[in-house]
Amino acid sequence: MIKHAGGRTTVRVDQRTNGAAWNELGVFDFEAGSYYVEVNNDNAVAEGYVIADAVKLSPAGAAPCSVIMQQRAGELKVAVADPTHESASVTVNLNQPGYRSYVADDTITVHQLQPKISFSVNTRGAAGVSRTVTFRRA
């Protein structure tokens, strides 16, 4: 689900087809501080998995911000970067319940773990360097 200036849009992608490539979800207008992309498994089939390797937000005329996630063995590692050097901060919301603790770079502020994860990354002065946070189920 994508929350944008015009409302909310649900986009379903089955990456069993074209899974090794970027899948465009659309073009949306975003207002500062009021948008997000949510990945969830509301409609996952019983034998399926929900995995988002990355979400790429591309401002018009600039390089993309990137969010890269890796999930294994009870941990979810998230790396965030703004190679555009245009944003002072990036807020990430993940519909990933069950995580109880985290370890984060000092530029990351975790707002909540339940019912979904929400955190902000201070990207000011980061020069495009990724900032990471690792969430743990235990």
Task: Describe the overall structure.
It is a single chain. This protein is an all-beta fold. The chain has no helices and eleven strands. The strands form three sheets. The chain has a five-stranded antiparallel β-sheet, with no helix packed on it. Strands 2-1-3 form a three-stranded antiparallel β-sheet, with no helix packed on it. Strands 7-10-9 form a three-stranded antiparallel β-sheet, with no helix packed on it. A hairpin with a 2-residue loop joins strand 1 and strand 2 (7-9). The model has no long low-confidence stretch (mean pLDDT 78). One of its GO terms (cellular component) is extracellular region. InterPro entries: CBD-like_Golvesin-Xly, Lyase_8-like_C, Lyase_8_C. Residues 2-58 form the Golvesin/Xly CBD-like domain. Residues 63-91 form the Polysaccharide lyase family 8 C-terminal domain.
